[in-house]
Specification:
Radius of gyration: 20 Å
Number of strands: 13
Number of helices: 7
CATH class of the largest domain: Alpha Beta
Structural class: alpha+beta
Shape: globular
CATH superfamily of the largest domain: Medium-chain alcohol dehydrogenases, catalytic domain
Distance between the termini: 62 Å
Strand content: 25-35%
Amino acid sequence: MKITAAVVDHQGADFELRDDVELCPMGPDDLQIHMVATGICHSDEALRVGDATIDYPIVLGHEGSGIVEKVGPEVTQFQPGDHVVLSFYACGQCANCLRGVPTQCLNYAHNNLSGVRPDGSSHFTLDGHHVADMFDQSSFTTTTVVRERNAVKVPRELDLRMLGPLGCGYVTGSGTVLNTLQPHPGDTIAVFGTGAVGLAAMMAGRISGCTKVIAVDIVDSRLALAKELGATDTINSRNTDAVQAFAI
């Protein structure tokens, strides 16, 4: 199946829209997804410029949201028409997955950053040649194929154009607070940087019952948004020493 995708041909190259990318056939536990929107994460840029080891050419993107078009015969949790957010792939079989910590999947690097699908096959090809993928997802496409474990169903009334970053930025920030820091009601939390990750961490602090949630940034408009989303205090660290302010 031919799709359109943003391809990075070599390290440091610009994204090039190609309409002759061949999408892999579906496997038994795969979903074919019509992409509606995607977030753009700094990790995408890091791989484009070569800050991490990866094969080229590559189709990047790992904060996708879309609509299920087809499902494989072994898929049990989804059906055509479902709205989904896509994220990384965890094997579900290693010790960490089985104890409920898929973010620490022992096969994470192979399944998400090797440039091939978990079974070793190519996700995409151009003129018969391998094109690497990202996170077994590659959301910078019009259509992609993912494993059932890559997808999370979301209510159809929600705007898919707003949900893509839930697949990476927001789970990173909220997961750090809820699963690692685990604050208790009455605690204080300070978050440096109020982008997607920081705002998610900040909101998770409020959900956890933190009495004081301090947002630190150098952009006043971001601090204003942090206040709207639950920050009790804001500090512009361009003008104020945040560490000294904490001590007051």
